[in-house]
Specification:
Blueprint: E1 3-8, E2 12-17, H1 22-31, E3 38-42, H2 48-60, E4 63-67, E5 70-74, E6 83-84, H3 86-89, H4 99-106, E7 108-112, H5 125-132, E8 137-141, E9 144-148, E10 157-159, H6 165-176, E11 181-185, H7 191-202, E12 206-208, E13 215-218, E14 227-229, H8 234-247, E15 249-254, H9 258-271, E16 274-278, E17 281-286, E18 294-296, H10 308-315, E19 321-325, H11 334-341, E20 345-349, E21 352-356, E22 365-367, H12 371-383, E23 386-391, H13 394-397, H14 403-408, E24 413-417
Parallel strand pairs: 2-15, 3-14, 6-7, 10-11, 18-19, 22-23
Antiparallel strand pairs: 1-23, 1-24, 3-5, 4-5, 7-9, 8-9, 11-13, 12-13, 15-17, 16-17, 19-21, 20-21
Bound molecules: ligand EPZ.
């Protein structure tokens, strides 16, 4: 397995462009199952997760090609299978996104239960209950979620509790082809959910309320193929900005949507980063000391849980004590123990990490456990004194394209070693 070797400390300096959003392209790929014909999606990041999802769609009978950032998904020959097999789903939880579209387009779907992830359980009860509200018969058979709607789906009403990005996407996609009107309440309004809704509308769906907690969907008989460009990845943008917070220096970020990263900028400025827009660029620098922060993750437009680990890496070097609470995933702190191997001083209790800042981190071998934890360890390694090895970097390859090359272009001393 490949690993990264990082020599630090190195301040960052240079320009970087934000890639298309992983968490936007995955539901868009699933939505292609609702459409007849060739969907074309551009600004697609070439990631392990994108490739995994393409493998899944091919397994279902979709002809798909990804090249030079453009994804072509042909469904004219129809769906060959309605089963998302365990061997694919276990590698990528987002496979659950095919449940709603397969059910709506084919009247049935069998998706392996995704199980948990590095930091604990990842339930799918809201996906199941939301689809049942559209008239589907839902059951579990031998580790698979089985959904049936032989007579097609009908409009219904459902309220998500808690707010769920995945369940909102799944039920929104199914409702697009359900007969009649659907009202969904307490919806996620992350930019990735809004883009999915806009892409569906562009294909002929009738959706009102995008960007708010309440969606009204009037089902239609069929959808045209998707035509859309994936929005920039706000979490990747936040990760590069957090890298400046951790390592110091100055970078210019291109292709970033200010309205999407606003919740992240507030915390980074509290940490001591100066961040300003210069034309289409976002300029971030940090030359002074890092300041402690008190952060709570929340659904958009709150501070995202996907940035929690990266901010912890910065807080580890702050002048004082920081408190980081993840209200969405209270156990999402596997990175804390690995950061402690680098000399950080962190105590995790009841969903809150108390981070007592230290003067410097020391390089050491560490283990990546999940996508954003990996990113946090890489950022910490760039700031740590000496050599850091980050193992199991396949985690980071799921959500960041060539991250070591792009960080090296910003001056980090990082290289990938084939393991
Ligand atoms: C999406 O996961 C993202 N993944 C995650 O990003 C992100 O952390 C998460 O949203 C929260 O923003 C993709 O978009 C592919 P949720 P998802 O359903 O949809 C509970 C990354 O690093 N819940 O919004 O699975 C759940 O336990 C990944 O890019 C239920 O109780 O997250 C959590 O507490 C990691 N029942 C809360 O809702 C359900 O049926 C939010 O989860 C579903 C969720």
């Amino acid at each position: 397995m490949d690993y990264f070797v990082i020599e630090g400390p190195t301040p960052l300096d240079g320009d970087v462009r934000v890639a298309g959003a992983k968490n936007a392209v995955l539901p868009l790929m699933a939505a292609a199952l609702l459409c007849r014909g060739e969907s074309v999606i551009t600004n697609v990041p070439d990631l392990r997760d994108t490739r995994f999802f393409l493998d899944l769609l091919r397994e279902l009978g979709v002809a798909g090609e990804l090249g030079a950032g453009t994804l072509r998904l042909e469904t004219a020959s129809g769906v060959r299978s309605v089963t998302a097999p365990y061997d694919i789903v276990r590698k990528m939880r987002a496979s659950i996104y095919v449940l709603g579209p397969l059910l709506a387009a084919c009247g049935e779907a069998r998706v392996s239960k995704p199980g948990g992830c590095a930091w604990g359980p990842r339930p799918v009860d809201l996906h199941v209950a939301g689809l049942a509200a559209l008239g589907a018969e839902m059951s579990e058979e031998h580790g698979y979620i089985v959904a049936r709607a032989p007579g097609g789906l009908r409009g219904g009403r459902y309220r998500f509790e808690p707010v769920s990005v995945g369940a909102t996407c799944n039920v929104l996609m199914a409702a697009a082809l359900a007969r009649g009107e659907t009202t969904l309440e307490n919806c996620a309004c992350e930019p990735e959910v809004v883009q999915l809704g806009e892409a569906l509308v562009g294909a002929g769906a009738r959706v009102e309320g995008l960007g708010t907690r309440t969606l009204h969907i009037q089902g239609v008989d069929e959808l045209q193929p998707l035509r859309c460009a994936v929005i920039p990845d706000r979490i990747e943008a936040g990760t590069f900005l957090a890298a400046v917070a951790v390592a110091g220096g100055r970078i210019r970020l291109a292709g970033c949507r200010l309205d999407h990263v606003a919740p992240i900028l507030g915390v980074l400025r509290d940490l001591g980063c100066e961040i300003r827009a210069e034309g289409d660029l976002l300029v971030a620098e940090r030359s002074g000391p890092l300041r402690p922060v008190k952060v709570e993750t929340e659904p958009f437009p709150g501070f995202p849980t996907d940035m929690q680990a990266q901010v912890m890496a910065a807080a580890a070097l702050a002048d004082g004590v920081s408190f980081i609470t993840d209200t969405i995933y209270p156990d999402r702190f596997t990175h804390a123990a690995e950061l402690e191997r680098l000399g950080a001083n962190i105590e995790v209790k009841n969903g809150t990490a108390t981070v007592i800042g230290v003067a410097a981190l020391q390089g050491a071998p560490v283990m990546a456990t999940d996508l954003r934890a990996s990113a946090a360890l890489v950022l910490a390694g760039i700031a740590a004194r000496g050599r850091t090895e980050v193992r199991r970097v396949y985690h980071i390859d799921r959500g960041y394209e060539r991250i070591e090359e792009r960080l090296a272009a910003l001056g980090a001393r990082i290289e990938r070693v084939a393991g």
